[in-house]
Structure formats: structure tokens, C-alpha cells
Write a structure and sequence with these properties.
With 246 residues, this protein is of the alpha+beta class. It is 30% helix and 30% strand. The chain has two domains: 78 residues, 2-Layer Sandwich (D-amino Acid Aminotransferase, Chain A, domain 1); 154 residues, D-amino Acid Aminotransferase, Chain A, domain 2 (Alpha-Beta Barrel).
């Protein structure tokens, strides 16, 4: 007789939200911002969450000697806080860059949860696998009108002159990126003006540099967009250092 593993309805049906935090030897990076987004996501699902309980479980974790992935998962039934090593692919993409394929996405229905970080990530992973089947590493969602949005697991950031930009989450109805927001706020320290605005795919292709920003990768530079190679930007190592990534 095999052991029976009990799975809660939240885990079975993806009825929950989560955050992935870059856990550094000095502690969780941008924890307050991640918890604020967790609360926003939970509210969109009408899901109860106690940030005090989350903080208590995070504080009880042992310290780490190297960067790790801290995951906070809140379902309707339970809270889980786990730590795991960074996937080797994350480090490789941070150092070597990524090839990105764009793909259109239709209008979202009124009940869409695209602004929440939910456990229902099957379509996101399927999008990345599709891009990889086309010879890329990751995918960029684009509206039917030609405006760039985000990647399945990352925010879009680009450099045009001395302007460092990202897509406005509310206007585009996408997930607000914590790493992207932190980068734009720190941009003035290195002479770059941070702002949010919409961008067409054609305009993006003419940008001085393009990155996918996420908690664990930090910044992954786009070295190819729809099969067109892009020169590496000298800003990539500077911005990674600005964010405290190796």
C-alpha cells in the first residue's frame, strides 16, 4: 500500500499566492516590498493573510552563507515558508544574458488575476517552454496593439539615452515588479532617470539596452530579440552592482 499524501484544495487548484525573495547572507532582500505585493495579491483573491505570521516564520529561518531562494506561499488553508538553493540557470542567465521571443496576448477578461502573483503558474511556464522551442530562452508578452508588457516570470526594463524605464503595472494590468521598481528608484544614483511608460515592440527594439528583472535573476540582459542579436551593454554589470548582485 502506497503512502497517501494529503494535498490541500489551495495547493490542488492553485488557490493561493506566493512571493520569491532573494535571500542574502545579510537577510531577505526587499522583504517589505515583497510582503506588500503578497498582501495586494491576496486581496485580489479575497484570501486571508497575516503578514505578522509571515514575518515571524521568516525571522525563525536559519541564516544562509550564500544567496538562496526564499519562497512564501499562502493558500486559503496554510502558510508555507521555504528556502532552497538558487537554480544554476538563474546565475547563467544573469551572467550570459537571454534570447527573447515576443508573442501577442489577447485582452484580459474582467476577472483576470494578472496583477496578482498566484500559484496558477502553469501558463507562465508553458510560455517559456514555447519560447525555448522557438530557439529562445524566454518570452515577452505583447498586446494585440503592439505594446510590450512583461515576461512570464520577469518585469521588462529598458534603457533609452539616460532614461531607465519599465512598463506601468496599473495601466498595462500586469504584475508590479519589485526588482524593477527598486532599480528605477536607484537609477538617479548612477545618472539615470527612472520612469514608467508604455513602449511598442518596435521602439523597444531600438533601445540602448533591454533587461528582464526578477527577484532571483536580478537582471538578465536581452542579447537577442526575435532572432536579432543585440550588443552587450556596459550598464549591465553596473546595474547589477547597484542592486547588490554578484
Amino acid at each position: 500500500m502506497t503512502d497517501r499524501v494529503l494535498v490541500s484544495p489551495g495547493e490542488l487548484f492553485g488557490d493561493g499566492v506566493f512571493e520569491t525573495v532573494h535571500l542574502r547572507p545579510g537577510g531577505p532582500w526587499l522583504l517589505d516590498q515583497h510582503l506588500a505585493r503578497l498582501a495586494r495579491s491576496a486581496a485580489l483573491l479575497d484570501l486571508p493573510v497575516s503578514l505578522d505570521e509571515v514575518r515571524a516564520q521568516v525571522a525563525a529561518l536559519p541564516s544562509v552563507t550564500e544567496a538562496s531562494a526564499l519562497r512564501i506561499i499562502q493558500t486559503r488553508q496554510a502558510l508555507h515558508v521555504t528556502v532552497a538553493p538558487l537554480a544554476p540557470g538563474m546565475l547563467r542567465e544573469r551572467r550570459s544574458g537571454i534570447r527573447v521571443i515576443s508573442s501577442p496576448v489577447g485582452p484580459q477578461p474582467p476577472w483576470s488575476l494578472t496583477a496578482a502573483k498566484t500559484l496558477s503558474y502553469g501558463p507562465n511556464f508553458a510560455a517559456r517552454r514555447w519560447a525555448q522551442a522557438q530557439g529562445g530562452d524566454d518570452l515577452l508578452w505583447v498586446t494585440m496593439e503592439g505594446y510590450a508588457l512583461e515576461g512570464p516570470t520577469a518585469s521588462l526594463v529598458w534603457l533609452a539615452g539616460d532614461g531607465l524605464h519599465s512598463v506601468p503595472p496599473q495601466e498595462a494590468a500586469i504584475l508590479a515588479g519589485t526588482t524593477a521598481a527598486e532599480l528605477l528608484s536607484r537609477g538617479p544614483a548612477v545618472g539615470l532617470r527612472g520612469s514608467y511608460r508604455m513602449v511598442t515592440l518596435d521602439e523597444l527594439a531600438r533601445a540602448d539596452a533591454i533587461w528582464f528583472a526578477s527577484a532571483l535573476r536580478g537582471l538578465a540582459e536581452v542579447i537577442s530579440l526575435d532572432g536579432v542579436p543585440r550588443a552587450r551593454s556596459p550598464w549591465t554589470p553596473r546595474l547589477l552592482e547597484l542592486l547588490g548582485f554578484d
